[in-house]
Specification:
Strand content: 5-15%
Structural class: alpha+beta
Oligomer: single chain
Strand order of the largest sheet: 2-3-1-4-5
Helix content: 40-55%
Number of strands: 5
């Protein structure tokens, strides 16, 4: 009797149906939004100020630098008015997604740091990074124009603005002097021709006395 009961229980055991979709394929229930802390609001304002007030923003991979190396690098960068900024990605990425810098998002993988300056100091920054090969430059933007690492290298080889302005002023001054010379050449030539014409006329005309009558010709001497 006990054996028969076991068979009956096994036959009548409830087997739940298999779900149509694997639970691992279902979207997780959305978590309630976390309340924004004061630190996150402060970091968000600081990030917005960094992207608003600086013309050059370079993104580097934040490798494990020793405290001494990081302090030395900060000092070398600060001499050229280049600042090093580090922000957590969970605060930085939401800012980029809702701004005009969203194309920089692929650069922020892992730990990153920003090198920013109010004026483009690309040549100085590349010279310093060249001495720190284990701190790779990923890309960034200058004057809201996104550049790759190669773009920063090309930009650093461009002549300075002061040199270009000097060459432009020199070229314009030469053209102005040349134009002035060409404009003065024709009047000077015309004046010289008129002076020569007047002198020739005076040399060819007979001498006129004060009475207005021309002087008689010289007498021919007797032979």
């Amino acid at each position: 009797m006990h054996f028969e009961r076991q068979k009956l229980m096994a036959v009548t055991e409830y087997i739940p149906p298999k779900p149509a979709v694997n639970p691992r394929c279902l979207t997780r229930p959305s978590r309630p939004p976390q309340e924004e802390t004061g630190l996150i609001r402060l970091l968000r304002r600081e990030i917005a100020a960094v992207f608003r007030d600086n013309r050059m923003i370079a993104v580097c991979q934040n490798v494990a630098l020793s405290a001494e190396d990081k302090l030395l690098m900060r000092h070398r960068l600060r001499k050229h008015k280049i600042l090093m900024k580090v922000f957590p990605n969970q605060v930085l990425k939401p800012f980029l997604e809702s701004s005009k810098y969203q194309n920089l998002l692929p650069l922020f993988v892992g730990h990153n740091l920003l090198l920013v300056s109010e004026e483009p100091k690309v040549k100085e920054m590349m010279r310093i990074l060249k001495g720190v090969p284990f701190l790779p430059l990923l890309g960034g933007c200058i004057d809201d124009t996104i550049l790759s690492r190669q773009g920063f290298i090309i930009y650093s080889k461009l002549p300075s603005l002061a040199l270009v302005q000097g060459e432009l002023v020199g070229g314009l001054s030469f053209l102005m002097a040349q134009t002035h010379s060409l404009l003065q050449y024709q009047p000077l030539q015309l004046t010289a021709l008129l002076d020569q014409y007047v002198r020739q006329r005076h040399e060819g005309d007979p001498v006129t006395p004060a009475s207005g009558q021309p002087s008689p010709p010289d007498p021919v001497p007797d032979s």
